[in-house]
Amino acid sequence: MATPGPVIPEVPFEPSKPPVIEGLSPTVYRDPETFKEKFLRKTRENPVVPIGCLATVAALTYGVYSFHQGDSRRSQLMMRTRIAAQGFTVTALLLGLAVTAMKSRP
């Protein structure tokens, strides 16, 4: 029986590059998405969430403006409205997540 010799790789190891595994892509997508593309895709998947976010920001902005003007009653109302808008947004996120999970099931 012959003793096996040392295994010499065909291509020298390049530590700056990841190893190439045949049939395996390092990313899920062929072309990586930009922030804008991902935002638009997520908005199309669940359009209610951005509406809830905008409602939250609007209520917060108007509440702070009212507080600055000295209208504490309206400021309190807007802060309560902001909480309701945040609840709406979280509910929309959870429902969108549930719908997406149900769609992916066979």
Kindly describe this structure.
This protein is 62% helix and 0% strand. Helix 2 (48-69) packs antiparallel against helix 3. The termini are far apart. It is elongated, with a radius of gyration of 27 Å. The model has no long low-confidence stretch (mean pLDDT 84). The protein has a domain at 47-104. It has 106 residues and is an all-alpha fold.
Estimated structural class: mainly alpha
Low-confidence stretches: none
**Number of DSSP E strands:** 0
SSE sequence, one letter per element? HHH
Helix content estimate: 55-70%
Mean pLDDT, all residues: 84
Rg of Cα set:
27 Å
Distance between the termini: 54 Å
| Percentage beta strand | under 5%
Major β-sheet profile:
none
What is the tally of helical segments?
Answer: 3
Q: What is the overall silhouette?
A: elongated
Protein name: HIG1 hypoxia inducible domain family member 2A
Organism: Macaca nemestrina
Keywords: Membrane, Transmembrane, Transmembrane helix
Subcellular location: Mitochondrion membrane
